[in-house]
Amino acid sequence: QDTITLRATANSNENDEDYDGLVVFKNYVENASNGAIEVEMFIGTQLCSAPDECIQGVADGTIDIYISTSSGLANAFPYVQIFDLPYLMSDDRIAEEVLTSTGLTDDLRRRILSDSGDTVRLMTIGNTGGWRNFANTERRLAEPGDLAGLKIRTVVADLPQELVRALGASPTPIAWPELFTSLQTGVVEGSKNGITDIMGMKFPDAGLQYMTLDGHAYMGALWIMNNERFMGMDDDLKRVVVDGFSALQQATFASPKRKSIEAYEEFVSGGGDLYVPTPEQKQAFQDAAAPVYDWFAANVDGGEEMLQNFRDAIAQAEESVNARRSAEME
Amino acid sequence: MLVWFLPLFLVLLMVGLPVFFALLASPGLMLWLGGQERDLVLLYRNMYNGMDSFPLMAIPFFMLAGEMMNRGGITLRLVEFAQACVGHFRAGLAQVNILSSMLFAGLSGSAVADTSALGSMLIPAMEREGYTRKFAAAVTAASSVIGPIIPPSGIMIIYAYVMEESVAALFLAGIVPGVLVGLGLMVVTNLIARRSEEFPPLKPRIGWAGKGRASLKAFFPLMTPVIILGGILGGAFTPTEASAIAVAYAAIVSLFILREMTVKDLPDVLLRAAIASSVVLLLVGAAMSFKTVVALSHAPEALAAFILSLSENPLILLLLINLLLFIIGMFLDAGPAIIILGPILGPIFTDLGVDPVHFAIIMSVNLTVGLATPPMGLVLFVASSVSGERVETIAKAILPFLAVEVFVIGLITYVPAISLAVPTFFGFL
Amino acid sequence: MGGVVAIARALGAVNAALLAVGRWLGIAAIGAMVIAILVQVFWRYVLNDPLPWPEEAARFLMLWMTGLVAPTAFRRGGFVAIDMVQLALPRLIGGLLTLVLLGLSLLVLVTAARIGWAEVTGFSGRFATSSLYYPTAEGWEKMPRSWMMGSILVGMVLLSAVAAELILRQIAILGGRGDDLPEIPMAVDIAAGAE
Ligand code: NA
Ligand code: NA
């Protein structure tokens, strides 16, 4: 039997958790398939540089595996923006429970398959970069009012922009490579990114010294694969691949946690102001963000249903995690 | 099998296939012959997405600004200003040519635009004064490579785009190297003029009143770089937006202050910029697809391993890389060369401790000088078409100037502060 | 050979007309790009109210500018190449080489146009743009990405038509009928690159 070569690509670099995940995947799949599957990794923008382009590549099979954030998939599958909905999942444990033990991923897989004409298959959802926080160059943001008037850089996607607007700041689209200069010169005053991206791009050197750990969005990493490629394998190999993605998922859950420790230390030792909002302040952020849910339900096709499914999944995860917690504490 | 697309590319280029088609045809043919037709779509898609970029938009805008300045009589005022400053030097008009290029470089991002704008004015003027045509064309071509070294710069926009560097940092880093190239050329011109009898006699120094008048007339044009860099550093706009501001400023100066351009000229000015930038954008797109197949062939890993096997001393490697870049610059435009080689070479040197901005300048300046070397020397082509002198003849006359440019590349390579001092001062490093 | 000349002239007339339209649209596009970015700066810096759409709108225009104007550059000799070998060879052989290279160019362009068509009409053409809307009877709709992707498809089709014309012209020249062809205005100096 011929070796199956899977072309996997991630638009990041070798310091990224996406890379860690892929290394685990490659190692698992190549060993467990006894060499029947080979994984060829293309890290960075060697094969494709924009999410739309990469998704297209997965759809027609020129790329087998690709990792996208939820905003990256938004043009093709707008409902994946549920992950950009702020303050729904409370912490890693809940998020991981939602992604591993509820029907949410299966639900999304079905929708994406059907909307892509059975070409794009969602394999798993891991994490890339932890949680998004608000960071800025001007002042400590203890409550939503402190954001008033700040220009916050977002990607050009609806939900992040709606959120920034709901909190009273101005969403400003700036190309990622121009963000450092823009922060430094004051074209924008803040951004919403995970800590590892912030430190990786050396944004504190550009003046980004105030960070509020509001954790408004879980940085879900959606791993997609060409469906025909997957369905063309026999059941043994399919099992190897899905197990490989499960291992990848675990690796990308763990890697950002480990990486962010150093990143936070570096941020603070560089003079950065790291602020943890009190429960009351966090509640105030959540209340201020409320219009975003309505916007999602009203403006995204199938948004209302998707939001409900997401809430149900979170409730289910909270229940099971709480049950396990109690058992663990007995 | 796939790896044969590299030699095939060179062959197609040498027999005269336009760069754009060679960049697509060689990987395309090899994929097709190797039964990988499916991957042809990757070529197309990377071409499309390679062009679909906001930072790249600065290229059409800076071209448009340069085109407007030229139409609006700004070039002439810069030349008059240069005349007032250095016209009385030995080989005065040649020195004026070089200084004008340095001033023009602050408004335009392109060596080709510099050659065609200044060459069409200064080469005939130099001939009238008694310079040989080949010398006039050679000075023009050699000095116009300063255009993309002093900001703004199309080449550095492309570098920043593929390498995700800060355009502003690269712009700032180019200032001192650009001035150094200019000064080096002025010194060489002086040396050549001292040794030769053929040069026209010295001209009288222009008095302070004349200098004042020339400065006044050149004031608005000379403010352009101040507005571009000031606006970027002051946080009013991003580098890409600065290019659009430069267009607006050029339009105001040309239409309302100098009044040498009228609204009727606009369509032609816009068209010239659109044509020139459409060619560049297609080239960028084609180079991006070429790069994809380079990655599929695993050539980068092989090349990186090979380079590191030569030596582990960054100083020696930098010398070798400069040689490689110089040779590549002979055959390839700077833009495609940066897109294809930047991602391969950049990380090697960054890992060895070379500052990314420093390496960007080494690579950009080296490949920019390549624009004035045969056989694929865009600037030589344009100097030839502007002057009517054969490319080969200009190529010979340009050798002493190239020598000093190579010397400056050496300085830039081994004295990082030349590139890094200015961006460090402004807090970009 | 008379037939070739006739077809070359006819195709030349069609191309000249199409490219003239393309140039006017290209002029409008580059002008509108500048305005879009000035609007972006004004709203953000002066009014402190950043707009989401100018960036993508300007990219949209830039792609259309490229697709519509590049064929004029190609037709006018603006795609730079090293022509030393073609000039150094004996006339006939050099002319045949030129013909082969034009044929290869046409092959590239037709292949690109075919892929482009599949892309525009395919899956990703249906993706939405991020911030561009167009009015419909029911209100504002997000513009599909295919409208943007159409730019380069149109460019490749026009470039193919130009390549076909240049091939016919080259055949006529090789057949000794070059004098019967209308001249194409050349503009090498303006189309030579960012460098
Ligand atoms: Na310049
Ligand atoms: Na060259």
Automatic annotation (TrEMBL), chain B:
Superkingdom assignment: Bacteria
TRAP C4-dicarboxylate transport system permease DctM subunit domain residues: 8-418
GO cellular component: plasma membrane
Major location (coarse): membrane
Membrane disposition: Multi-pass membrane protein
InterPro entries reported for this sequence: DctM (IPR010656), TRAP_DctM (IPR004681)
An annotated Gene Ontology molecular function: transmembrane transporter activity
Compartments, as annotated in UniProt: Cell inner membrane
Residue intervals passing through the bilayer: 6-33, 54-74, 98-123, 135-162, 168-193, 242-258, 270-290, 302-324, 331-349, 361-386, 398-426
Keywords: Cell inner membrane, Cell membrane, Membrane, Transmembrane, Transmembrane helix, Transport
Subunit structure: The complex comprises the extracytoplasmic solute receptor protein and the two transmembrane proteins.
Family: Belongs to the TRAP transporter large permease family.
Role: Part of the tripartite ATP-independent periplasmic (TRAP) transport system.
Descriptive protein name: TRAP transporter large permease protein
Highest classification ranks of the organism: Bacteria, Pseudomonadati, Pseudomonadota, Alphaproteobacteria, Rhodobacterales
UniProtKB/TrEMBL annotation, chain C:
GO terms of molecular function: transmembrane transporter activity
Entry keyword Amino-acid biosynthesis: no
One Pfam family per UniProt: DctQ
Biological process terms in GO annotation: C4-dicarboxylate transport
Alphabetical keyword list: Cell inner membrane, Cell membrane, Membrane, Transmembrane, Transmembrane helix, Transport
A GO cellular component entry from the record: plasma membrane
Compartments, as annotated in UniProt: Cell inner membrane
Segments traversing the membrane: 24-45, 57-74, 95-117, 147-168
Domain Tripartite ATP-independent periplasmic transporters DctQ component: 33-171
Membrane-topology descriptor: Multi-pass membrane protein
Superkingdom to which the source organism belongs: Bacteria
Family the entry assigns: Belongs to the TRAP transporter small permease family.
Role description: Part of the tripartite ATP-independent periplasmic (TRAP) transport system.
Subunit structure and binding partners: The complex comprises the extracytoplasmic solute receptor protein and the two transmembrane proteins.
Name recorded for this polypeptide: TRAP transporter small permease protein
Taxonomic source organism: Jannaschia aquimarina
